[in-house]
């Protein structure tokens, strides 16, 4: 009897019991499906303290150390042997991949979720990426983008010669766990986001601050999430006397149920690959107000399942909010149907599992 194919999945991602999102459900479903097919799989995360949702996975925590270094050191010290390495949220084309190959790994699959800055990379960074593409892309057997935008950016950043080993597997979500919105829910808006500057929530605060009181007083915005920019966002809210409008709720593992209580999701982001928050909101039949960046336009069609504005244009966002309150902008149809058919979790999992199957041919 042959030994099972051993897989290591290395993720620059911290697991948190207060944040059970789309990627968390993907990791668990992928692990289950891989094991059903006879694979042996170990997970390496940035941070993990055991909790029930992940109880079935074999997980090693880097305890906020560099997760790539942690993985390489553990493999070396414990003489671990893996056949396939899959990475999520790691920088592409670095010396890590060369070192991983040198440990005996036969196939490396690098999944790119990392968005690019709104203003683009500096000339120095552009040149550096091109050099890294030449030096280290040979050690990665498959590059996977989570949207067409991401695939194009991989080729732009690291070299168009990677075209034949770069493909797309769209993010997907477990649509069945989301409670669907069935009523108007007045003028309630929700943000589900890591709280950092690049998410553009400061522009939302500006947008609300310029609304006339008659409009502003009809709006409720709840912010779910945590992050390094939270203190600054709270200060901006207080500075503009918006504490009665914008409420910071912290992290929540129950967004699959909470989203249905809102009329629209707000995502004024500056950079995005293919947002799971957008998919989750649409799955809950909650249209999305977001920017033109990244893969957003691959899922949001203005006026059909959301409204679009240019990043940083807070006046345009204010106009959208005003017209929603006045009833001039409205989306009545069920916006969840395309998510259920095209961007479901099973489709995402099977796409990634097929990469494993193909790598053994």
From TrEMBL:
Domain Glycosyltransferase subfamily 4-like N-terminal as annotated: residue spans: 72-176
GO molecular function: glycosyltransferase activity
InterPro entries membership: Glyco_trans_1 (IPR001296), Glyco_trans_4-like_N (IPR028098)
Positions of the Glycosyl transferase family domain: 179-326
Signal peptide boundaries: none
Highest rank taxon of the organism: Bacteria
Database matches in Gene3D superfamilies: Glycogen Phosphorylase B
Name of the protein in its database record: Glycosyltransferase family 4 protein
């Amino acid at each position: 009897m042959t030994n099972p194919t051993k897989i290591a999945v290395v993720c620059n991602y911290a697991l948190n019991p207060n944040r059970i999102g789309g990627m968390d459900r993907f990791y668990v479903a992928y692990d289950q499906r891989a094991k059903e097919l006879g694979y042996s799989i170990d997970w390496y995360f940035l941070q993990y303290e055991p909790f029930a949702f992940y109880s079935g996975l074999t997980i090693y925590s880097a305890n906020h150390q560099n997760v790539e270094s942690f993985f390489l050191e553990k493999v070396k010290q414990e003489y671990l042997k893996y056949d396939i390495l899959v990475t999520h949220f790691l920088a592409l084309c670095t010396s890590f991949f060369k070192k991983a190959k040198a440990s005996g790994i036969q196939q490396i699959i690098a999944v790119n979720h990392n968005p690019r800055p709104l203003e683009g990379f500096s000339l120095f960074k552009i040149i550096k990426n091109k050099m890294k593409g030449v030096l280290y892309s040979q050690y990665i057997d498959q590059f996977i983008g989570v949207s067409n935008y991401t695939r194009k950016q991989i080729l732009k950043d690291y070299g168009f010669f990677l075209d034949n080993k770069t493909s797309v597997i769209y993010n997907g979500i477990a649509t069945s766990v989301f409670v669907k919105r069935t009523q108007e829910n007045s003028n309630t808006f929700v943000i589900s986001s890591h709280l950092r500057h690049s998410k553009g929530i400061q522009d939302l605060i500006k947008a609300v601050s310029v609304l006339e009181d008659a409009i502003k007083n009809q709006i409720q915005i709840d912010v779910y999430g945590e992050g390094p920019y939270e203190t600054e966002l709270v200060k901006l809210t207080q500075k503009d006397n918006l504490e009665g409008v914008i409420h910071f709720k912290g992290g929540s593992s129950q967004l699959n149920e909470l989203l249905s209580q809102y009329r629209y999701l707000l995502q004024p982001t500056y950079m995005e690959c293919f947002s799971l928050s957008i998919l989750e909101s649409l799955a809950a039949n909650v249209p999305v107000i977001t920017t033109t960046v990244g893969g957003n336009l691959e899922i949001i069609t203005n006026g059909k399942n959301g409204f679009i504005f240019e990043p940083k244009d807070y006046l345009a966002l204010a106009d959208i909010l005003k017209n929603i309150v006045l009833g001039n902008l409205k989306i009545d149809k069920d916006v969840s149907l395309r998510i259920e058919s095209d961007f479901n979790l099973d489709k995402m999992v099977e796409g990634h599992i097929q990469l494993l199957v193909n790598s053994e041919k």
